[in-house]
Fold Glucose-6-phosphate isomerase.
Amino acid sequence: MPHRDIDLIYQNTSGVEASQFEAGHETLKDYVDFVWKIAQGDEGGFDYDYPESSVNLPLDGDFRSSLLRKIKEKKNSGLKYIVVIGIGGSNLGTMALYRALRGRLDVFLHEKDPKIIFVDTVSPPLINQVIQFLNREVNGLEEIIVNVISKSGETTETVANFEVVYDVLKKRFGDKINERLVFTTDKGSKLWDVAEEKGLDLIEIPKNIGGRYSVMSAVGLFPLGLANFDIELFLDGAAEMTKRCTEKDVYKNPAIISAVITHLHYTNGLNIYNSFYFNPELKSLGRWYSQMMAESVAKEYDMDNQKVNIGITPIISIGSTDLHSTATLFLSGPRNKFTQFVHAAQKEGSPQVPSELFMPDLVPDIKGKSIADIMSAICYGVKIAYLKNGLPYSEIVMHEISEDSLGQYLQLKMIETMYLARLLRVNAFDQPKVEDYKREIREILKKL
């Protein structure tokens, strides 16, 4: 499938004037140039010295080659299940891409492709189901790979879940199960050191790339590659978007445009950001982006160490499902939300409503229409309602849901978030308050 750019549509809908885009661009100009220089690399290749270095991953041929080799090394013809044990940035991006492309009926419609099982939290029902599954469905070592992902190497939920999974598999297969373990973590983390000491398989996460920015690293792409996705297309789409998002011309740079829109509306009191997906299979993209925005932008102190308690609250809506529950809130409720619609037309191969209806008097105008056309009509109707009610929005059009378009989307949102944080004058890459609850958890566990 040829590459097709995803489009950002905002003219006449975002409520932002040309002069405001140009002012935002002026503020960001030096930072955009800095990100552009990182993405150029040098004669020796790409380095990962900066937290923005996630922009390098899709462009780095050495990284791409080493990842493809690792996938080829670990993949085998009998592989059926990849158990991904991770949480937050170690899990959400992988899950978003997997569910977007495999859909709700994955287990029934993709029988020949390995399945990814996400073990992301310490829920007793979930872990009991995983234990039952491992005991009943895994019949040999060749059928399973366990990929443990933790940037710090000390994530409570991840370590606890791994120990449970490992105990089940060791009782069944003995020490041989160690050959089917892969640990993705920072080099030099406690997890890295322990795994290295035990002679286990390791994949490095570049140290300066934070978890929520790591989906285009081995964190996201290694398990997806094992599951027969074309990771080169993810990287190709992200590489094209990196070039667009480091453009000097503000009107050719969707990341600047989108960041400026969000920033201006936030300063005008719209502190809730609604990602409204008109394809239900994209719902998990919203969960990934919710972490991206919340952790990157919500901060107690700004870059001048002034106390600001700043933050934008991300929410997720699904069309057309949520229109039947929350449309009144969006159209009639508080004017504190900015919406970005995301829609992939998916016209190719779309099923069609029959020309002869069994119940022709109920909704006669659906006769002969494709399902894609009906969803497009719903999406278009919602946008008209927003305009008539004076509600600002922007829109991302994907054309189709594919590895390429999803790679573009994730890279756009990551770079856009860097620019938005810069406009808000906060650090997009730290999350100091996250340690507060983790510290309390460790103290409670000591006392149990």
Observations:
- Residues 18-40 form the longest helix (23 residues).
